[in-house]
Amino acid sequence: MSEADAVARSDGPRTVTTLAEDLRALGLERGATVLVHSSLSSLGWVAGGAVAVTQALVDVVGPQGTIVMPAHSGDWSDPANWSNPPVPEAWFETIRAEMPAFDPRRTPTRGLGVVAELFRTWPDVVRSDHPQVSFAAWGREADAIVQGHLLAQSMGETSPLARLYERDAQVLLLGAGYGSCTSFHLAEYRTGGARPAQSGAPITEDGRRTWACFDDIEFRDDLFEELGGDFERERPVSRGRVGSADTRLFPQRAAVDFAVGWLRARGR
């Protein structure tokens, strides 16, 4: 969406103040632990862009709360698995040998939008140490949520998603759809029916760059919109507008538990 389109679909400028008011009206409270998936363009024209959105979230939950966002970098991965776009097979070994090791301070996010990319650089934000599906966190429990994120089973029981589940966190789909709801990946592991997969990435180990291979599963993001629609019809979800964006707020634990049953019923 162009900036002109954003202006046209807004009945006034969105600001830190108006966004915070909308988030509170939706049900986001001070002290909350919340996993945020966002689409800046869906909010309308925002004075301050991603900075204003992040500041509004910080103002609402406060320092006693915790904000988490995906900080995924899917291009830090095995080129043999790339499809958007693919690269020639003759390039694979060079890429594996020369791609810089993942660095949580420097490696950019990919495909998550400008709010998530800005958030990973926000003061006092910490990031989990996974080269492909890291998460960034700010607030009281940030360190506890991102620590111990192992390579294998990347969004399973050692991931920040499981730490959020333990804390009965909320999920905020801020103009984003259920297709962005990474918490459903945790359910994919818990069903026990996902197909195994292999992955690889450049990491730093014992102070040296190395290429690491690890076990994972095949993700089925293509099911998440249908899954989310069924969840919303059967479980309480707070819906409202934040700026111009259709926004949802719901308990992560309820969503994961529902998804486990939903996926098992479909043999996933």
Descriptive labels:
single chain; 268 residues; alpha+beta; 10 helices
Can you walk me through this structure?
The chain has 268 residues and is an alpha+beta fold. 33% of the residues lie in helices and 21% in strands. The protein has ten helices and nine strands. The strands form two sheets. The protein has a seven-stranded mixed β-sheet. It has a two-stranded antiparallel sheet with strand order 6-7. β8 and β9 (245-251) form a beta hairpin. The longest helix has 14 residues, at 252-265. The protein is globular. The two termini are 35 Å apart.
Describe how the helices and strands are arranged.
Blueprint: H1 3-8, H2 16-26, E1 33-38, H3 49-61, E2 66-70, H4 92-98, H5 114-119, E3 126-127, E4 135-139, H6 142-146, H7 160-166, E5 170-174, H8 183-191, E6 196-205, E7 208-217, H9 224-234, E8 238-242, E9 245-251, H10 252-265
Parallel strand pairs: 1-2, 1-5
Antiparallel strand pairs: 2-4, 3-4, 5-9, 6-7, 8-9
Helix pairs in contact: 2-3, 8-10
Give a quick rundown of the structure:
The chain has helices at residues 3-8, 16-26, 49-61, 92-98, 114-119, 142-146, 160-166, 183-191, 224-234, 252-265; strands spanning 33-38, 66-70, 126-127, 135-139, 170-174, 196-205, 208-217, 238-242, 245-251. It is of the alpha+beta class and 268 residues long. The longest helix has 14 residues, at 252-265.
Total strands: 9
Distance between the ends: 35 Å
Mean pLDDT: 95
Structural class: alpha+beta
| Estimated radius of gyration | 19 Å
The shape is globular
Helix segment tally: 10
Q: Order of SSEs, N→C? A: HHEHEHHEEHHEHEEHEEH
Give the spatial strand order of the biggest sheet.
3-4-2-1-5-9-8
Work out the strand percent: 15-25%
Low-confidence runs: none
In percent, how helical is the residue content?
A: 25-40%
